[in-house]
Amino acid sequence: MIKHKKAQWPWHGLTALVLVGLAVSLYFATSMMAYEWHWNRVPQYFAYQAEEPQRAAAFGTVENVAEQGDMARVTLRGEDGDQQVLEVARNSLSLAKGDDVAEGDLIGVTRHWAAGPLAWGLWTTIWISLVSGVLGLVVGLFAGLCRLSSNPTLRDLSTVYVELVRGTPLLVQIFIFYFFIGTVLNLSREFAGVAALALFTGAYVAEIVRAGVQSIAKGQGEAARSLGLSAGQSMRHVVLPQAFKRVLPPLAGQFISLVKDTSLVSVIAITELTKSGREAITTSFSTFEIWFCVAGLYLVINLPLSHFASRLERRLAQSD
């Protein structure tokens, strides 16, 4: 009997229709608000042309001005005969040949592209997430294995760590780590923020690792031991590789949550993406535009991470 595959396009069409409906609803909801959208103010917070003033180093005169495209090459001759050559933007040139200049007079400006606050905030969020995630994975793997240890001290200490961290808010932990531990040990705010995030993530990773290892049949480890492997070798070469396949989805979810949790380090004056967005709002008065951009930037980080985890999960499943 031949099974006919059901057509999927009507369901995809329904999905597209629902998304279009949501977009239209959002449009009408925003049109009912007394709010003027100014998307033209947003690009400067990603990248802008910075101006660097060029000034005369001493008293003298403008000996020559040579224009080259959008730039102007200005030659100054000091009273002591020294020559100073400056290249400035042609439309910023404020002097002409033969003019007298004093020390510190503005000749013009040079312009170059520079990263805006949202771009810098995005970079800060990425490196904090990366460092905290790696450290959290290491801490969580160690704590998770300690939870399974036959040593009562290791098991009890790891249990206290996991329950203490999971039972208190991350915001409180950041405050305690920076204002108490950081003050005693003279830690920078960046170090304190990364350490708090790493310890917080490590507690959840520890439980994920523990559950993943316990989900593997005991016969796997016993078979490895019967082949002459030690307990450590059995765990490293037999149990953990199988457990990793099972814990990959919750690990990916935990790291995605970590990226969003980095917004809390703004309370200790770390200018990550969310804090950069708040600062941009105070100068642009474009509240919704900036918040939509901030949300989009978080998606830019998390969607590739989720996609990578899904692809890795499929590849590992093919090896079974």
Question: Would you mind describing this structure in some detail?
Answer:
The chain is an alpha+beta fold and 320 residues long. It folds into two domains: 50-114, OB fold (Dihydrolipoamide Acetyltransferase, E2P); 119-275 and 293-318, MetI-like fold (Orthogonal Bundle). It is built from nine helices and six strands; from the N terminus they run αββββββαααααααα. The protein has helices at residues 9-31, 117-147, 152-166, 170-185, 189-214, 218-226, 231-261, 273-284, 287-318; strands at residues 47-55, 60-68, 71-78, 83-89, 100-101, 106-115. Strands 4-3-2-5 form a four-stranded antiparallel β-sheet, with no helix packed on it. Strand 3 and strand 4 (83-89) form a beta hairpin. Helix 7 (231-261) runs antiparallel to helix 9 (287-318). The radius of gyration is 30 Å and the shape is elongated. The mean pLDDT is 86.
Write a concise keyword list for the protein shown above.
single chain, 320 residues, alpha+beta, OB fold (Dihydrolipoamide Acetyltransferase, E2P), MetI-like fold, 2 domains, four-stranded antiparallel sheet, two-stranded antiparallel sheet, 9 helices, 6 strands, 14% strand
